[in-house]
């Protein structure tokens, strides 16, 4: 057999990638479309949330703010019990409310019952459930759950991971196909204008789509776990002030105890009092935490420190933390965002940019436009697929197996190794790719048998 020329190999690779790009859009497209539309809803929801929960988030605009202890006592009077919050977010400015967060039965992971207290009048302005480290309210929580899991829990998370796992491949594949045929695209007739617009818009949005995919995968169930392990191995993890204290027997307590769902705040030596929240706030300010948005988390087990963290993720980012000894409020550990490794900073900024937090309204509008562009790409793609379907024949929806089998052995082995590596790093992509390969191979086999049978029949008729 004569050696295959590089030109022929190039044509085979183009056929393989173009067919794979088609099928990614055809089968994964609906998941990407749902993620894009729900993402737009999430990005545009903050103004609506501000309007819907205005009376909860805002209070008296004139007067003197009362100490946190007085605000906690007001919450205790409202609750009818001397419960202490598991976290407190003091009002960032006059006219805004303080948020007291409590663990409560019946809530989901990362959910808290939040009481909103007017720091001037001490009135309870709201009692609702908040979610996540950003403390989003019920409206955005529902949109967020739909965006990430279709309101179906861990099973639903597979949808978003499937979309994020394939989105970057679709984006890179589209750019590669555009580069391969950019000259011919210019000469396409008006009848093929959709194809030209699809290719041009895809190239324009490529960086944004890659960003959506990469940051989205950090939240995923399977790929996200692999990414977390990789970050830890390479020293890219985000630093956090340790709340572990060493007792007289040199035993270290669980530093993650504050994340346990039904923990009750207790001090290392004496019972926790409402006044201790003011002491912790004063100590944190003295230690250099000057952000308006701050969260105070008291100890939840013996021999554990307070954690006070800045939570302003806008630009410039303020996310420093201190751990404070519960008896004398001295600093036992501290982290400073300016000293974070570059990779940890990029991770923080990437996540906040994805959520539309980093640059506020401008951030939200830009991301919403990129997501809207993705929706447009998907719709154009389905228009082109529908046109193919209307005139379907054996060549309109060809298999990927055909060009694959004609590739040189080295090319096939290289692509196989890449596919295996990607499947191990992104398990949902790997499983779905394996399923696609099996189905495509079966289609190729059936088509081959069908063609051979018809050729034999034609040959028999010719001999007659």
Features:
elongated; 4-stranded antiparallel sheet; 464 residues; Nuclear Transport Factor 2, Chain: A; 9% strand; 14 helices; alpha+beta
Secondary-structure element sequence?
A: HHHHEEEEHHHHHEEEEHHHHH
| Rounded Rg | 29 Å
Return the average pLDDT rounded to an integer.
Answer: 89
Rough shape? elongated
Helical segment tally?
14
Strands side by side in the biggest sheet: 1-2-3-4
Q: How many domains make up the 3D coordinates? A: 4
User: What is the percentage of strand-forming residues?
Assistant: 5-15%
Structural class: alpha+beta
User: Which ranges are low-confidence, i.e. pLDDT below 50, for 5 or more consecutive residues?
Assistant: 247-268
Task: Sketch the major β-sheet.
Answer: 4 strands, antiparallel
Number of strands: 8
* Beginning-to-end CA distance, first to last residue: 34 Å
Helix content, binned percent: 55-70%
Textual characterization of the structure:
- With 464 residues, the protein is α+β, with helices and mostly antiparallel strands.
- The protein has 4 domains: 14-53 and 137-237 and 344-398; 64-136, no CATH class; 257-339, Nuclear Transport Factor 2, Chain: A (Roll), CATH 3.10.450; 399-464.
- The protein contains 14 helices and 8 strands.
- It has helices at 6-43, 45-52, 54-57, 68-79, 138-149, 153-186, 193-217, 223-233, 275-286, 342-354, 360-390, 401-406, 409-425, 427-463, and strands at 87-89, 98-102, 111-117, 124-131, 294-297, 306-310, 321-324, 331-335.
- The strands form 2 sheets. Strands 1-2-3-4 form a 4-stranded antiparallel sheet.
- A hairpin with an 8-residue loop joins β2 (98-102) and β3.
- The longest helix has 38 residues, at 6-43.
- The relative contact order is 0.12.
- The model is unreliable at 247-268 (pLDDT under 50).
């Amino acid at each position: 057999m004569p050696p295959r020329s590089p030109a022929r190999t190039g044509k085979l690779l183009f056929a393989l990638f173009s067919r794979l790009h088609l099928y990614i859009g055809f089968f994964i497209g609906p998941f990407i479309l749902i993620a894009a539309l729900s993402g737009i809803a999430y990005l545009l929801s903050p103004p609506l949330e501000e309007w819907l929960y205005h009376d909860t988030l805002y209070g008296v605009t004139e007067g003197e703010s009362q100490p946190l202890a007085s605000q906690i006592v007001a919450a205790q009077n409202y609750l009818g019990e001397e419960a202490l919050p598991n976290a407190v977010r003091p009002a960032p400015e006059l006219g805004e409310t303080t948020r007291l967060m409590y663990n409560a039965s019946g809530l989901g992971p990362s959910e808290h019952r939040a009481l909103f207290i007017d720091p001037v009048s001490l009135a309870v302005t709201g009692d609702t459930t908040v979610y996540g480290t950003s403390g989003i309210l019920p409206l955005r929580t529902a949109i967020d759950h739909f965006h990430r899991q279709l309101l179906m829990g861990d099973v639903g998370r597979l949808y978003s991971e499937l979309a994020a796992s394939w989105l970057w491949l679709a984006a890179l594949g589209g750019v590669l196909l555009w580069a391969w045929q950019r000259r011919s695209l210019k000469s396409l007739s008006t009848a093929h204008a959709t194809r030209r617009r699809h290719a041009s818009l895809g190239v324009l949005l490529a960086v944004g789509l890659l960003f959506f995919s990469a940051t989205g995968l950090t939240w995923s169930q399977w790929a996200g776990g692999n990414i977390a392990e990789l970050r830890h191995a390479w020293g890219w993890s985000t630093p956090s002030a340790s709340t572990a204290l060493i007792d007289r027997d040199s035993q270290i307590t669980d530093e993650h105890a504050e994340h346990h769902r039904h923990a009750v705040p207790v001090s290392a030596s004496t019972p926790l009092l409402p006044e201790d929240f003011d002491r912790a706030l004063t100590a944190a300010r003295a230690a250099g935490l000057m952000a308006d948005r701050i969260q105070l988390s008291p100890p939840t087990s013996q021999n554990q420190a307070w954690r006070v963290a800045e939570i302003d993720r806008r630009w410039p980012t303020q996310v420093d933390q201190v751990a404070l000894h519960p008896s004398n409020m001295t600093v036992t550990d501290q982290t400073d965002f300016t000293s974070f490794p570059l990779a940890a900073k990029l991770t923080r900024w990437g996540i906040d940019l994805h959520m539309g937090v980093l640059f506020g309204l401008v951030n939200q509008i830009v991301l919403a436009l990129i997501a809207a562009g993705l929706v447009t790409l998907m719709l154009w793609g389905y228009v082109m697929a529908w046109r193919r379907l209307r005139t379907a024949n054996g060549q309109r929806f060809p298999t990927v197996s055909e060009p694959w089998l004609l590739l040189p052995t080295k090319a096939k082995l290289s692509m196989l190794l890449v596919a295996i590596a990607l499947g191990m790093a992104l398990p949902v992509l790997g499983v779905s790719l394996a399923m696609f390969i099996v189905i495509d191979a079966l289609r190729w086999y059936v088509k081959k048998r069908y063609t051979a049978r018809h050729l034999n029949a034609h040959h028999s008729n010719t001999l007659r």
